[in-house]
Amino acid sequence: MKKILATLVILAALTTNWSCSDDDREPVAALQELPELLVDFGANTYVLTEQTVNNLAVSLIWSAADFGFPAQVNYTVQGDMADGDFSEPISFGTTTETFFNITVGQLNDAALGMGLTPFEEGQMAIRVVGVISDNVAPAPTETVVLNVTPFTFATEPEPARLAVPGDHQGWNPDPNAVEFVPFLQASSATTTDFEGFVELNNEFKFVGANDDGNFVWGNIDWGDASGTNGSYTQVLTDDGEGNCGTGTVGGPGYYLVRANTEDLTYSLEKTEWGIIGNATPTGWDSDTDMTYDPVARVWTITIDLVQQDAPDNGLKFRANDDWAINIGDTGADGIMEFGGDNIGVPEDGNYTVVLDLSNPRQYTYTLTKN
Known about the structure:
- Keywords: Signal.
- This protein is 9% helix and 34% strand.
- With 370 residues, it is mainly beta.
- It has three domains: 45-149, Immunoglobulins (Immunoglobulin-like); 161-270, Immunoglobulin-like (Sandwich); 273-369, Sandwich (Immunoglobulin-like).
- Residues 1-25 have low confidence and may be disordered.
């Protein structure tokens, strides 16, 4: 009998412990309320024009999604054809706020990207989707259908650029005043996804062009949102900013630099370049390192190569002995793309290989037989 009582006491104690542990569990997300668009779109009709490309087209405001406990919600503004199911949506951007602005240029790019015909009215749908985790179902708003008439430029404008002045070149954004100013370039005239390779020292800023297309101090410029030189958050601001810098990501070196002046973010990835492939002495097993020429601003190597036909064989350029950043030549047109095709070698021989990343988004290479 004593043994039975002792067993019951132990079980009661264990049950008590388990009950207490329930209070310590992490909160379980359960969607309580979907976000709701709070904007009256009126007739929902937008006739887009080249002259208003930078103007505001759509201003979205929505109520916050409720997942049952306090959590940061990332909201993505999505677009699709009016009869689409958002399985492959176009993203206008992501924010943690409950509002988002879409310019005429962005709406036009999205409409053309979906296949709407220029200068003819078509329909596209937009919505906002709230997400807190890949493990929790997203929270979408209702879908709104817009009647949009997109346009094409009479003369395609040049993509936007940012100058990158800093202590690597004398802190001067004006290419007419100094020997060299590195630039980042957006993918189009109406986007803000700036990209380029820059040899950086320690600190720098991003400077936009003025109405005359010139890059000078006094124009809008962006720096680190920390507001303190030497403190780097990789968040941008044009008000009360500090300098951006390499101090927390590797110090002086050759960087892939990306900046988005709408999302207010920037990123830096230090790179050392090499070639790899079955046209090189070490095949696909390892890279052969290239050397950076700071005067010509190119990467070079002199090497024995064997004949190989692209795209199944040949060589590629990659950074840091890894495939995370690699570039090839899709279409064999001499213009390179991230993740592009292998580059062929016409015949066996000793070659000087040059990789030029100095012109943003127009990366080129040459293979010259010695």
